[in-house]
Design goal:
There is one protein chain. This protein has 260 residues and is of the alpha/beta class. It folds into two domains: 11-198, UDP N-Acetylglucosamine Acyltransferase, domain 1 (3 Solenoid), CATH 2.160.10.10; 204-252, Udp N-acetylglucosamine O-acyltransferase, C-terminal domain (Udp N-acetylglucosamine O-acyltransferase, Domain 2, Up-down Bundle), CATH 1.20.1180.10. The protein has four helices and 27 strands. The protein has helices spanning 197-202, 207-221, 227-236, 242-252, and strands at 11-12, 17-18, 23-24, 29-30, 34-36, 41-42, 47-48, 52-54, 59-60, 65-68, 81-84, 89-90, 95-97, 106-109, 114-115, 120-121, 126-127, 132-133, 138-139, 144-145, 150-151, 156-157, 162-163, 168-169, 174-175, 183-186, 191-195. The strands form three sheets. The protein has a ten-stranded mixed sheet. A nine-stranded parallel sheet has the order 1-4-7-10-13-16-19-22-25, with no helix packed on it. A hairpin with a 4-residue loop joins strand 26 (183-186) and strand 27.
Length: 260
């Protein structure tokens, strides 16, 4: 492949589709059925194994391994995929695996996410947009992470769990149940501390919405209601507050139970 932006020391499979203005540094390996959108940059020593679709303007740093076979004993080599959106940053040593046939066949990472060094995204996960994964975060298979969520360094998430939109997980926290939207969780064992008020202020949430979410936190965590009773209380006060509906949806969609 003749391209001044692609280092001749890298290996590009004949089936790979490389967009315009893509820069590929030395000693990268791009496997079969890989698509890389225009404007993306692969620094060096990166493996994009196979069956991976990468959007536009992504930056992937050295020693990352993207689109590798899933680490699941049930995987038998069936065709599965990894899809990555636009404007993401994958720092050094990030690993992201394709899906499994039994798990839906696809792992998805959205747009404008920051994955710091040595983050691991396991098979069949779905990561939203504008998230931050700090150093050494690992999410197990089939985990869903909502938009704007932040996971602190060395946090670990068990399989089949959901991290709600705008939630924040403290560093070195082990997550064993779902995290509702907007909540801060930290400690060992993990405990819900409050709503992510500072993060919400930075993202432009108005004072009334933040006030409603503070009250919602008290209803869920301080007033000894059952979860269904708490949800009913939130539904009675949700009119005019879109954020409360997001919170209600995250509570009602929980299948493994929430941290409470």
């Amino acid at each position: 492949m003749s391209n001044d932006l692609i280092d001749e020391r890298s290996q590009i499979h004949a089936t790979a589709e490389i967009g315009s203005d893509v820069q590929i540094g030395p000693w990268c390996v791009i496997g079969q059925n890989v698509t890389i959108g225009e404007g993306s940059v692969l620094e060096s020593h990166i493996v994009i194994r196979s069956n991976t679709k990468i959007g536009r303007n992504n930056r992937i740093l050295q020693f990352s391994s993207i689109g590798e076979d899933p680490a699941d004993k049930k995987f038998q080599g069936e065709e599965t995929w990894l899809e990555i959106g636009d404007n993401n940053i994958f720092r050094e040593g990030v690993t992201a695996h394709r899906g499994t046939g039994s798990g839906g066949g696809i792992t998805k990472i959205g747009c404008s996410n920051l994955l710091m060094p040595y983050v691991h995204i396991a098979h069949d996960c779905e990561v939203g947009n504008n998230t931050v994964f700090a150093n050494n975060v690992g999410i197990s298979g089939h985990v869903e992470v909502g938009d704007w969520a932040i996971l602190g360094g060395y946090a670990g998430v068990n399989q089949f769990l959901k991290i709600g939109a705008h939630a924040m997980v403290g560093g070195m926290t082990h997550i064993t149940n779902d995290i509702p939207a907007f909540m801060i969780v930290s400690g060992r064992p993990a405990s819900v501390r409050s709503i992510n008020a500072i993060g919400l202020e930075r993202r432009g949430f108005d004072k009334d919405s933040i006030g409603d979410l503070r009250e919602a936190f008290k209803i869920i965590y301080k007033r000894k209601y059952s979860l269904q009773e708490a949800i009913d209380q939130l539904k009675a006060m949700r009119e005019g507050c879109e954020a409360l509906q997001v919170l209600i949806d995250s509570l009602e969609s929980s299948e493994k139970g929430i941290h409470r």
